[in-house]
Amino acid sequence: MSTKVFLVDDHRLFLAGVRSELADEFSIVGTAHDVDAAIDGIRNFKPDVVLIDVHMPDGGGVAVVEGVAETNPDIKFLALSVSDSAEDVIAMIRAGARGYVTKTIGPEELADAIRRIHAGDAVFSPRLAGFVLDAFAGAIPSTEDPEMDQLTVREKDVLRLIARGFAYKQVARKLNISIKTVETHVSSVLRKLQLSNRHELARWASKRRIV
Amino acid sequence: MSTKVFLVDDHRLFLAGVRSELADEFSIVGTAHDVDAAIDGIRNFKPDVVLIDVHMPDGGGVAVVEGVAETNPDIKFLALSVSDSAEDVIAMIRAGARGYVTKTIGPEELADAIRRIHAGDAVFSPRLAGFVLDAFAGAIPSTEDPEMDQLTVREKDVLRLIARGFAYKQVARKLNISIKTVETHVSSVLRKLQLSNRHELARWASKRRIV
DNA sequence: TAGGTGCTCAGGGGAATCCCCGATTGAGGT
DNA sequence: ACCTCAATCGGGGATTCCCCTGAGCACCTA
């Protein structure tokens, strides 16, 4: 029995193109071009793999994945998008997608990606894998905080080390300055961020993943 | 100029084998067979890619990656292991590795993996990618920390509040106990977890998402 | 030239933290 | 009955943290 695939895309022409390309190898059990129809269709036909567009009205691919994943956790999602931005990729992975490829992909590669997704692997366009790992390792400072702009370079240096749990003495040695200077910087940071002690500061930093 | 590669493995024969296989295409700038030598060597030779064994005495690959990543964030790590367990994979990725392949890999595939790592991609043995995504999506409640098991119920209560940045006085009031009792609990926690102060404790907790 | 800002450092004081010593109570196991 | 351990509390001391005032130096701008 061939792999059952469900297609979701709000561009009907693109939908038709993908369908004709994949129809030989896979069993296309259904298609949808909006979020609600996609959720209903997927729940009805219980495909093995869902090929889903990221950008759609009413929530996009994320809404579909989240809507279906709870009731049918065994269905695999492969995101298909024109965007290769880190935000989109990470949002889809967080929602539960097992792969993410851009629409520049060729038909054979797409077929191969679907096969691998169905087999349990994860598939990414080469450049995208890095985003996922960076986010996972917490390497992405995510959104730039306007809060941080009011801090000077040196204050941010101190902030980072304080957030890592170093004592003033250790911070001083690492930055080659005196403890008193560290105290001055910490006081400035606390005042600017309206915090009252280094514990709140550490918590503030960990929330923003400044580590 | 060919890609500079540094090899780390405590099995010297395996090290020699990899070296001879890769020497044609890559510039092997150094090797090491224990954690300390690896950190020193990598800092000295500043390779583009480090091929690192996961299982070694004194902390294993994780210790090496963490030891180097702070000072040399541009160095890429490719983990190479006999193990394909989710714990090992996730630990390495968390530490900062950009790829993870098992030692069953062939020489050509290994060379290709190194090329891709150097280019900025992420490389995984097919089956392993799923682990990373599951962990990222939060599907895995992570591994229950054996570290936490040695703590009593009350100690965990205190730990949580300390991690949130509360002062001893505030913790005492919240738990309806005296400051001295809080001190006792904190001291026990610090001793059991081998930490030296509440700042490190907060950092320890935030890494494990105990918030 | 004058003013503003960032970075550096110091003294002093009060609060908080951390560790050492000790203690009592109660629950659970041998 | 005895022992262990979790949980509770205390004294005292060394250290760290946080704030306050004050100050010198470098740089940039008006």
List keywords for this structure.
homodimer; 211 residues; elongated; alpha/beta; DNA-binding; six-stranded parallel β-sheet
Describe this structure in words.
The structure is a homodimer of 211-residue chains. Chain A is an alpha/beta fold and 211 residues long. Helix content of chain A is 54%, strand content 13%. Chain A is built from 11 helices and 6 strands. The first copy, chain A, has helices at 12-22, 35-45, 60-69, 86-95, 107-119, 126-136, 146-149, 153-163, 168-175, 179-193, 198-207; strands at 4-8, 27-32, 49-53, 76-81, 99-102, 123-124. In chain A, strands 2-1-3-4-5-6 form a 6-stranded parallel β-sheet, with helices on both faces. In chain A, α8 packs across α10 (179-193), α8 crosses α11 and α9 (168-175) crosses α10. Chain A is elongated, with a radius of gyration of 24 Å. The termini of chain A are far apart. The model of chain A is unreliable at 139-144 (pLDDT under 50). At the A-B interface, α4, β6, α6 and α11 of A face α4, β6, α6 and α11 of B. The structure holds a DNA duplex (30 and 30 nucleotides).
Enumerate the spans of chain A where pLDDT stays under 50 for 5 or more consecutive residues: 139-144
Shape of chain A: elongated
- Helix/strand structural class of chain A: alpha/beta
What fraction of the residues of chain A are assigned to beta strands by DSSP? 5-15%
Biggest chain pair interface? A-B, 35 and 36 residues
Order of SSEs of chain A:
EHEHEHEHEHEHHHHHH
Strand order of the largest sheet of chain A: 2-1-3-4-5-6
Oligomer: homodimer
Annotation, overall tally of beta strands of chain A: 6
Helix content of chain A: 40-55%
N- to C-terminal distance of chain A:
50 Å
Mean pLDDT of chain A: 81
